[in-house]
Design goal:
By secondary structure, the chain is α+β, with helices and mostly antiparallel strands. The chain is 20% helix and 43% strand. It is built from five helices and 16 strands. The strands form two sheets. It has an eight-stranded mixed beta sheet, covered by helices on one side. An eight-stranded mixed beta sheet has the order 10-11-12-9-13-16-15-14, covered by helices on one side. A hairpin with a 5-residue loop joins strand 15 and strand 16.
């Protein structure tokens, strides 16, 4: 099995949710989103820029969408590695889900916008092999890391996502698979407000190498993380 010639990279996000109208106010209050209605649900906008698609369905889940030069080849390779495919959807053998499409429409960085992606797993070796084989993403621990609990996923020389080997406390509260991160200026404030808006706080705010984070669930149960990115070291 050969990896894609050009890596597939996380490019945009979609929310599948049991009730689109029920979660719109939650994300408006938490992330400042407005909406444009679509035939299948709604397009979420941050400062007028489209940042996510919301569609009716179940179970409630945030899906990363990977951009690939040859989406069909990626899906075929994934199926050969044990994944189940259904149209654009790929259900990997470890419990994660993503979509793969041709073309790139990445959202520019900014508040309320998707800013990072991480694969949460209790089988890091299997996950790393799957992502290398199917997406062309190579897992490498950050410089100075004591072990491979956390790895960056590289598309050529550029880190485009992360992979976290879930420790037992987190494995009990966070689902296996892709976690979508949204940029906020104050994760502590978002964590405090989410339960008042009908959501849940799953992992309290804490500092990690990527910045300050808090894991939340929206009123329909879709899990995501808010992140204040760490300042970049320009030295």
């Amino acid at each position: 099995m050969s990896a894609p010639t050009t890596p597939a990279v996380p490019d945009r996000v979609e929310l599948v949710t049991t009730d689109v109208d029920a979660v719109r106010p939650f994300y408006t209050d938490l992330l400042g989103w407005t909406y444009a209605d679509t035939a299948g649900g709604a397009t979420a906008l941050a400062d007028g820029v489209p940042v996510a698609e919301l569609r009716a369905g179940a179970p409630a889940r945030w899906w990363p969408v990977f951009a690939a030069d040859d989406a069909g080849a990626v899906r075929a390779t994934a199926a050969g590695a044990g994944a189940r495919t259904d149209g654009d959807d790929v259900h990997d053998p470890l419990g994660g889900c993503f979509r793969v499409r041709a073309g790139a429409t990445a959202v520019a960085p900014g508040p309320g916008r998707p800013c990072w992606y991480e694969y949460m797993t209790v089988a890091p070796g299997d996950a790393d092999r799957f992502h290398a084989d199917t997406l062309g993403l190579r897992a490498t621990p950050p410089p100075g890391a004591p072990d491979d609990t956390y790895a960056l996923l590289f598309a050529d020389a550029r880190p485009v996502a992360g992979r976290l080997a879930l420790p037992e406390p987190l494995a009990a509260v966070l689902p296996t698979g892709w976690m979508v991160y949204f940029a906020v200026s104050d994760p502590d404030d978002a964590a405090a407000r989410a339960p008042r808006l009908g959501g849940r706080l799953l992992v309290p705010p804490r500092d990690v190498p990527t910045g300050r984070v808090a894991a939340l669930a929206d009123p329909n149960g879709a899990v995501f993380t808010v992140l204040r990115p760490a300042p970049r070291d320009h030295h």
